[in-house]
Amino acid sequence: MADIASATVLDAGCAMGFLVEALRDQGVDAFGIDVSEYGLSQARADIRPFCRQASVTQPFPRRFDLIVCIEVLEHLPAADAPRAVQNIARHSDDVLFSSTPDDYREATHFNVQPPEFWAELFAREDMYRDVDYDASYITPWATRFRRRRDPPARQVAQYERLVRRLMAENRALRELTLERRAEPAPAPAAPDGQDDLTGSRSAGP
């Protein structure tokens, strides 16, 4: 919240309301929705009035400065994913989003998709990755999408800046790995009481 400084936040898929609780404890006007009646019933008593049972595909009651949607949309049928993203984008210009790209073992993960799948859906709503914001404190694949109406040329320049930075980092790491592989292996330590070069036991005092 220090970085994004949103006055109003919706946690879309809030489960037991932990994020709503944490934000409200810090003075943020936070709300939550979730389809699980049980999950909502486990929210802290003073938080329950700010969490309601609803689907991310249903219109929200208002707009928010920020919508957070963490590991939720993979639980929807694939056909509902575009509608959910449209609904989220309709109610905020700023979204923190994460959806696992590779956890197929969870039985309720009906729509596991790579990050570019979600990026394309948000792009259809004029929302694009904020290349200057690192959301990896949430998950390695988390992204902050923001509504941008920049001309395509400027969008391309921003993405190229990100690609160039990542390629430079990758190249530097590869070079470091090759340098370390080229270094001679350290000589094995001699057993106690033996000379390092001959292996003969040294004389006592």
Structural features, described:
This protein is an alpha/beta fold. Helix content is 31%, strand content 16%. It has five helices and seven strands; from the N terminus they run E-H-E-H-E-E-H-E-H-E-E-H. It has helices spanning 18-25, 37-41, 81-90, 115-123, 152-182; strands at residues 8-12, 29-34, 51-53, 66-70, 94-98, 127-129, 143-147. Strands 3-2-1-4-5-7-6 form a seven-stranded mixed β-sheet, sandwiched between helices. Helix 3 (81-90) links the parallel strand 4 and strand 5. It is globular and about 70 Å long. The model has no long low-confidence stretch (mean pLDDT 89).
Question: What's the layout of helices and strands?
Answer:
Elements: E1 8-12, H1 18-25, E2 29-34, H2 37-41, E3 51-53, E4 66-70, H3 81-90, E5 94-98, H4 115-123, E6 127-129, E7 143-147, H5 152-182
Parallel strand pairs: 1-2, 1-4, 2-3, 4-5
Antiparallel strand pairs: 5-7, 6-7
